[in-house]
Amino acid sequence: MLRVISRRLVQLVVTLLALMTLVFFWLRSLPGGPVDALLGERATPQTRELLTRALGYDQPIWVQYGRFLKNVVTGNFGNSIRTGEPVTEVISRAFPATVELAVAAIIIAIGLGVPLGYLAARHRGRLLDNATIIVTLVGISIPIFFLGYLLKDWLTQGLHLFPPSGRISTGMDNTDVTGFFVLDGLLTRELDASADALWHLVLPAVTLATIPLAIIIRITRASVLDVLDEDYIRTADAKGLRNPTIRKRHVLRNALLPVVTIIGLQTGALLAGAVLTEKVYNWGGLGTLITDSIGGSRDYPVLQALILLAAAVFVVVNLLVDLSYAVIDPRVRVR
Amino acid sequence: MTRALSDHKRRRIDELIARTSEPGGVSLLRDAGRRLLRNPTAIVGGTIILLFLVIAIFAPLVAPHDPIQRFPELTQKLTVDSIPGATAGHPLGSDPLGRDFASRMIFGARQTLFVGVLATLIGLLIGVLLGALAGAIGGWVDNLLMRLTDVMLALPSLLLAITLVALASRSTQWTVIIAVAIVNVPIFARLLRGSMLAQRESDHVLAARALGVKRRDIVLRHMLPNSLTAVIVQATLTFAVAILDAAALSFLGLGDPDINRAEWGLMLGVDGVRYFEVRPELAYFPALAIILVALGFTLLGESIREALDPKNRR
Amino acid sequence: MRASGKGLRSALAAGTIAVLTIGAAGCAESDRDNGGGEGSASGGTFIFAGAGDPKNFDPIFNDDGESFRPIRQMYDTLITHKPGTAELTGGLAESWENDASGKVWTFKLRQGVKFHDGSPLDAAAVCANFDRWFNMKGEAAQSQMIYYQDVFGGFAGSKDAVYDNCKAQDASTAVVTMTRYKGAFPGAFTLTAFSIASPTAMKQYDSDTVTQNGDSFSYSAFANEHPTGTGAFTFGGWNKATGEITLNKNADYWGDKAKVDKMIIKIIKDENTRKQELRAGTVQAIDYPAPADRKALADEGYKVLDRPAFNILYLGINQKNPKLKDLRVRQAIAYALNRAQLVQTKGPGGAAVADEFLPNTVLGYAQDVQKYEYNVDKAKQLLSEAGATGLTLNFYYPTEVTRPYMPNPQEIFTVLANDLQAAGIKVNGVPRPWNGGFKDDVQQFGKQDLHILGWTGDYNDPGNFVGTFFGRGKVEFGDQAMTEMFDAIGKADATVDQAAKKTAFEQVNRDLAAKWLPAVPIWHAPPALATTKNVEGLVPSPLTAEEFNTVSVTK
Amino acid sequence: MPLLDVRDLSVTFERRGTRPVRAVDGVSFTVEPGQTVGLVGESGCGKSVTSLAIMGLLPRRGNKVTGEVRFEDTDLLTLRPKDLRDWRGRDIGMIFQDPLSSLNPVIPLGVQVAEVLERHQGRTRQAALREARELLDAVGIPDPARRLKEFPHQLSGGMRQRALIAIALACKPRLLIADEPTTALDVTIQAQILTLLKELVDDSGTALVMITHDLGVVAGLCDTVNVLYAGKVVERAYRHDLFAEPRHPYTHGLLQSVPRLDVDRGERLHQIRGSVSDNIPWPEGCAFAPRCDRLVDDCIGETVPLEPTFRGGALRCTNPVPKEVAV
């Protein structure tokens, strides 16, 4: 097991280095770039010249690359052009926000998706099943930013059921411990802050959960149907086992194998969905950071780090999925 | 043990293909076709797509007006906070620039088809080429290409598309199409490679090899055609994703910058969102159209996959 | 082997808990609404939704409105504007004088003003600020002093430097001597970038340390955590995770003390979300409501406050293209544009067609310039006279950006291009990302034939408008040798006598319209503010330089 | 009184959008306590469906089952599905064809054996596992204590089938249905498993219904044999009678197509032409007619009844193979 992990990590590092080099040279070849982004509309040619020198862009490209590489290896991704903070700080602040949102979405997706998919499979061909299939198909086909807009318009404007945006009410003055606001409130006994954060979390999480939910329902349904067809279920039936036992012991466990894989594959989709969801709900996470780093400002240092982070998260999550797979499926464990 | 762990995701994709691309030739296809026609899901999906295609192809005949012409009778009443609704000659009223919204919706089918088909096709062609190379040659070529797709698969699709658009110095319709296409390259490459590998060991290929058929001919005549069924299914499903991704890019302000172009994703992501309170129809109609078409392609793709699945052959 | 069952159960349980807690959260929130704000005799909290992150709070290192908004509340400038206008009035200086040469500025400072750290604002402190700017070390720091570079020409040792020295004549008299006269003064003294900061605090928190890191810069503790000025609000904190900047009432403020105890600037980048938060009552005021939402908001009883227009959108014409060197072709373009219709269909409320490159409140605005009323026939006629029929032009426009003067560049481009096509000019639209190529292509390389761009004025001076665009050779407009125009503007700008300056600039504006036409002015589009009904005393500033000490929130 | 009395059992598949298919068509047979009865036929003849119908294991949707399945005094078909579960595993055990897929891949073997004891005999997990170890031992699995913790994929094919037998016999049922229990196994293993089955059945007095296409299996094991074709019993006889004097052309053909050592090497093996799917397209008549060498007009005109022959046998044929024709 250790060998697998270390091999994966080495692979990850190599992949990231390659990606980084690619991104570096690509960015340098673009017009505009950091100089443009750092200068406002008021900049005079002198300022531009000053800045070019200050950033070392007048030096040969390989000198720049060497410096960049040295920085990155020492964990220094530079400063954000937009806010002037170290990139690591900017990202570590946004990271918990997105994780909070993504975890909430995953909880919704799994918590609803697995039971619904299971029910649909059990009632195959009946109303519940058909309704579920149609809803999931629409769920996959709807542009989620539009869904977010609709939810927001209906539930926060006409009906003031939920707050329209943000992670917590303005002026809540919550104590920031971990960056996960719901958790922080619990840790610091600021229960009102925790509840408020949770209340803000509902709509974005539901929006973000839409696609994974639909996919998990479909996979669970298909997987349960597959398993129900398996010979070992017939064996279990032949043993005279009671239905609940069969379902719990024989059907679910096997049916969840592909679902676990899909959840891993969905992490990437979640990050992509977060870009849209966070923009809709002004959620200060990685998604917003990506949008902010591109739209208009071209905050290349942040963008660079974000690409690396996304790739790393994806690889790590999939490693975790593989490991969890090994825990659930004895066949993988031993082979 | 290591292989089993690290490669199971790839195996999963490969398995999917092995299932759908079992050798069986014509009778399998005819069989699948028959099952398809009996499947109501396929019929609904097919009807939606057919309708969509007809509208797209015959847009100039169906649409009442030129989609980019601004009409004085509409601009007269147009201000930034009120957009005229249906009037004589303009059944759906105006868009934010005084153009005929109905015509734009109709021409939208054409542009959306264009974006979706091209994004899918380009992704498919490059992917199939790489996958076929990897699958047919194997060895270090295979290794290199698969590592490349690993890197690409490491980034979530929309994120990759966003990055590509952001990194392109110019934004045009093609930036969007190519970004969405590139996202799909690794998927197609993996798919084809897996299918080819599965077939390399299959009976009919072994038989052909035993008969002394040239390797190139085996690849071109025997392996490729069989692998393509899986690719076609994937392409149908990819189309839906492509138009959704294009819409998302527009929403993020990274889409096709030419708002003269009537493309549903663009109309929804830019005008639809911006003028949602002034005239929600500007969002509802394109959104509905996108959902319907995406649904149609998903339905059709899934039913083709189902029809080709040997498990359903009884 | 029972894990799966358990997993499912606990997931369901978690869901249930979540639902229950949401219910509880709803209750908690309503309690808060009832409890907060009212009752106490205090002024309460004013929450204002801004549109973007500030960079930092050291005035001299900033150049954008989102940074200036909080800075302006915490600092004061020597000279400022009368609320709601672009007219000058005393700030930290009660009065100011310019000598006959135009080089020496004498400021009479207000007595008894204290910085937030308790140190006194005196002539020495003012001079310390001027000297700090002038003597700033390091390319990193200098490259970020964009306004200083623009107004003061350069730093210590530079021959272009405008600043010479500052003397504290007595505790309340500061005398600033320049190397030469510059028309930007005294208007430029109102720039928020030139706010006066506490020298004690700057020294304590190492304000001048700007370090490069990767492709950008780090700023000092002074800039980030300890901004110290004389303003009506003191710095409370910047919670970057929630995007909230908290400002507290300065009880010792020298002017009108803030009516609210606390002000929060909440950063909400999406205009639609700002509006929704306003409706949800979670913020009391928002900046830049979308033009499309103004009517709806007003109908629902919100106050939509227009700032008097102080900006300009123009269509730039690049005379590097020989066809465009012909005045008749440029005039044809002007005639071809139906600007009245553009203003009607796409202009935000209060927008007006622009005939000159500066708003009519600025000195030197001429009443009688040549106007180009929409006239397609005239345009076609001029084109054929110039032998320029069948002209094809590359029209550059930016994407990924909105500006107060340009709320929607794509729509504006589309409409303008449409008009040009109607007059027989073929338009080849070239979209470029704002920071990812547009500024480079247009202002560095001059690849375009036509482009749209604009400007928001910094202070009330014609030089800040026409001088910025046409005062020197710029790639943007192609011709480096329009010496007649450069000279005329340079001379007008250098005129010390205000009446003479006015006449000179009026002539410049007439010539710009009739003779030179380097660009076509399109519109002045005032950006708006919107507030809830219970917000009083918010005076919109043409320079988007609102001060919030006058704001009160009634129940 | 027979232990199991199947009377006129019919199963019809009714899928939406397709013509109903009658997979089992009026099958009747009996099993006496301790007796071993064979159901023989090619794949697709309905023998597996018959066994599943007896066990109530056919999917409820899309299938119509009629007739009677009397187990002692109870008609299993009239039981509520929930109640039938009390019988399965306790009174009737079943073994399936593919031992790998018939075992749950993600559950340790011990639990899979133990759960049937927990279910029917109220054992605790601990007790059941102890008993499971003995059971595995009894079916000849070496080192049973270790195997209990292992997963199916870690076992060999033969061991898996032994495990399935252990599961089926755990509660000492009175009837065991074995559906092609050796088909998926190597020939050497096949013999072991059959021997094991025979021993166990003989020792415990369990009746066995053996479903197979392999006449060799029948020859070694069964007391009486039912030959099925197209969902119908076409011939029934004691083992000896059947092998000595097959009457139905189908049975005859089957026997002839078994390779034998006492035949000249050059002689071609007999084969029945066509396949099961070559059926006559109408309900009356003999389903085997299109493939039959002894076809006469009566075969396809009217329904051919199953008529008793000597010693409790039966035959469904208008033109049977004459008695004197030796095989």
Count of distinct structural domains of chain A: 2
Order of helices and strands of chain A: HHHHHHHHHHHHHH
Strand content of chain A: under 5%
Structural class by SSE content of chain C: alpha+beta
Largest interface: A-C, 88 and 81 residues
InterPro entries (chain B): BP-dependent_transpt_permease, MetI-like, MetI-like_sf, OppC_N
Family (chain B): Belongs to the binding-protein-dependent transport system permease family.
Transmembrane segments (chain B): 42-63, 113-141, 148-168, 174-192, 224-244, 283-304
Subcellular location (chain B): Cell membrane
Structure description:
The complex is a heterotetramer of chains A (335), B (314), C (555) and D (327). With 314 residues, chain B is an all-alpha fold. Chain B has helices at 2-6, 8-20, 25-38, 40-57, 59-62, 72-75, 101-137, 139-153, 157-167, 173-200, 203-210, 215-251, 264-274, 281-308. Chain B has a single domain (42-60, 99-312), classed as MetI-like fold. Chain B starts with a helix and ends in a 6-residue tail after the last helix. Mean pLDDT of chain B is 81; it is low at 1-10 and 16-26. With 555 residues, chain C is an alpha+beta fold. In chain C, strands 10-11-12-1-13-21-14 form a seven-stranded mixed β-sheet, with helices on both faces. The longest helix of chain C is centred in the N-terminal third of the chain and has 33 residues, at 3-35. Chain D has two domains: 4-222, P-loop containing nucleotide triphosphate hydrolases (Rossmann fold), CATH 3.40.50.300; 229-315, no CATH class. Chain D has helices at 47-55, 81-87, 109-121, 125-138, 144-149, 157-169, 187-204, 215-221, 239-244, 249-256, 297-301; strands spanning 4-13, 21-31, 36-40, 63-71, 74-75, 92-95, 175-179, 207-212, 224-229, 232-238, 307-308, 314-315. The mean pLDDT of chain D is 85. Chains in contact: A-B, A-C, A-D, B-C. Chains A and C meet through helix 2, helix 3, helix 5, helix 7 and helix 9 of A and helix 1, helix 4, helix 5, strand 9 and strand 12 of C.
How would you summarize the topology of this molecule?
The complex is a heterotetramer of chains A (335), B (314), C (555) and D (327).
Chain A: H1 2-28, H2 33-38, H3 45-54, H4 61-73, H5 87-122, H6 127-141, H7 144-158, H8 181-187, H9 191-228, H10 231-238, H11 243-281, H12 286-294, H13 300-328, H14 330-334
Chain B: H1 2-6, H2 8-20, H3 25-38, H4 40-57, H5 59-62, H6 72-75, H7 101-137, H8 139-153, H9 157-167, H10 173-200, H11 203-210, H12 215-251, H13 264-274, H14 281-308
Chain D: E1 4-13, E2 21-31, E3 36-40, H1 47-55, E4 63-71, E5 74-75, H2 81-87, E6 92-95, H3 109-121, H4 125-138, H5 144-149, H6 157-169, E7 175-179, H7 187-204, E8 207-212, H8 215-221, E9 224-229, E10 232-238, H9 239-244, H10 249-256, H11 297-301, E11 307-308, E12 314-315
Parallel strand pairs in D: 3-8, 3-9, 6-7, 7-8
Antiparallel strand pairs in D: 1-2, 1-4, 4-5, 9-10, 10-12, 11-12
Helix pairs in contact in D: 3-4, 3-6, 4-6, 6-7
